[in-house]
Design goal:
- By secondary structure, the chain is an alpha/beta fold.
- The chain has helices at residues 10-20, 46-61, 92-103, 168-174, 176-205, and strands spanning 2-5, 26-29, 64-74, 113-123, 129-140, 156-158, 161-162.
- It has a seven-stranded mixed β-sheet with strand order 2-1-3-4-5-6-7.
């Protein structure tokens, strides 16, 4: 089965491919297909925004389209930046991280808790949908550390290291997106098995 990934974020594309391709799925990005996504993320939740992007990518390509919406929810900030994570400062990853540090200035270590959240939506050409979610609990550091990953990874600590210091496979094993994609794959396998069973029943009936 071939999927198109409904994102222009190259970091996300790499993570999707690392996780989905070893499971036997063919994955292409919109960029690889010479396309781009131009939709307003008007949803109030990660799941709603993921659905908006997946539907548009499916319409553009005619393929099953997978989108995620993900972000960082910080307890001391009432869940912010949340669905606004990518556009928190309006100045890209570095600006977002610097704004987060300013907002958390003076907040003690034990109160710098938060989580990465990822919602996955896959829209098929027949307009049916599969969804999955994943979360990863962590702490927000006092300074950027590490040069791996993207987004808030250099500030998001799980254990004694930031995601910016984790290797790809280590991060995939515990990250919000890794968890969501593995849950999605399990649901996809169940869908495929159900489809095959229905086809067999139709053949047997004939």
């Amino acid at each position: 089965m071939k999927f198109v990934i409904a994102t222009g974020n190259e970091g996300k594309v790499r993570e999707f491919k690392r996780i989905l391709e070893p499971m036997g799925f063919e994955v292409s990005s919109l960029k690889e297909m010479g396309l781009s996504l131009d939709v307003e993320e008007t949803g109030a939740t990660f799941a709603e925004n993921a659905r908006i992007k997946a539907k548009e990518a499916c319409r553009l390509t005619g393929l099953a389209a997978i989108a995620d919406d993900s972000g960082l929810c910080v307890d001391a900030l009432g869940g912010a930046p949340g669905v606004y994570s990518a556009r928190y400062s309006g100045e890209g990853d570095d600006g977002n991280n610097q704004k987060l540090l300013r907002e958390l200035a003076g907040v003690p270590a034990e109160e710098r808790t938060g989580r990465y959240v990822c919602a996955i939506s896959c829209i098929f050409p027949d307009q049916t949908e599969l969804t999955a979610e994943g979360t990863c609990e962590g702490m927000i550091g006092y300074a950027l550390s590490g040069n791996h990953g993207f987004g808030y990874d250099p500030l998001f600590y799980v254990g004694d290291r930031s995601f910016g210091q984790y290797g790809d496979e280590e991060k995939d094993a515990i990250s919000h997106r890794g968890k969501a994609l593995r849950a999605f794959c399990e649901k996809l396998k169940e869908r495929q098995a159900k489809t095959m069973d229905e086809r067999r029943k139709k053949i047997d009936y004939k």
